[in-house]
Design a protein that fits this description.
TIM Barrel, binds iron/sulfur cluster, 27% strand, alpha/beta
């Protein structure tokens, strides 16, 4: 298999449960809910994306075989093999490309494997940390995992539709757009009302890292 990768970089996980943790991010190209082109954003199945996942032209982006991708991830993670390493597969939609074989091989090299997905595609076996971020117009098939993270507000969103799914942690994350202050206020208000949900902030944006 050839993997299309937008970028790979070493950073600090900025959001959700693992916020603050050193992580290698591998961003796969492409998404099943939007083609990434601005002129089709309004009519896309997901229309509030803040990520460039088009093409393979980012930092360390490219077309990779399994072996070359593992080698590149190892080089970027820059860690002794005795230390548990943390890799986050994201996108775009990473489950369009992430497969069991790649997961198995990375685990042999002492990686904890995390994925950030829109939840519309079933996950291969072996993922250690599943974060699902549903986009409400789209039915999720991945209704279990470690954390669910809803961007808030989303038109038509009913929290109760997500509260009985099988997740350990429930997060609301203010929509990052030109109305951010209002979105944050609304998020704080809803959490005060429904405390099952916790606040997730995109801290990487505030401290100026990827
Ligand atoms: S599902 Fe995720 S990657 Fe795809 S368009 Fe929506 S926010 Fe962007």
């Amino acid at each position: 298999m050839i993997y299309n990768v937008k970028e790979i970089f070493l950073t600090i996980q900025g959001e959700g449960y693992n916020s603050g943790k050193k992580a290698t991010f591998c961003r796969f190209s492409g998404c099943n809910l939007w083609n990434g082109l601005e002129n089709s954003k309004k009519t896309a199945k997901c229309n509030f994306c803040d990520t460039d996942f088009v093409g393979i032209n980012g930092e360390n982006g490219g077309k990779y075989t399994e072996v070359s991708l593992i080698n590149k991830i190892e080089k970027i993670s820059n860690c002794n093999n005795n230390i548990k390493k943390f890799i986050v597969f994201t996108g775009g939609e990473p489950l369009l490309q992430l497969n069991e074989q790649l997961i198995k091989k990375l685990k042999k090299k002492n990686y904890k494997i995390a994925v950030e997905t829109n939840g519309t595609i079933k996950a291969p076996k072996g993922i250690d940390w599943i974060c699902v971020s549903p986009k409400i117009k789209n039915k999720i098939v991945l209704n279990y995992g470690n954390e669910i993270k809803l961007v808030y507000p989303q038109r038509g969103l009913k929290l109760k539709n997500f509260e009985n799914l099988n997740f350990d942690h429930y997060y609301l994350q203010p929509l990052y757009n030109d109305k951010y202050d209002q979105n944050l206020k609304k998020t704080l208000e809803i959490i005060m009302k429904y405390p099952k949900w916790k606040l997730s902030l995109q801290t990487h944006k505030f401290i100026g890292i990827k």
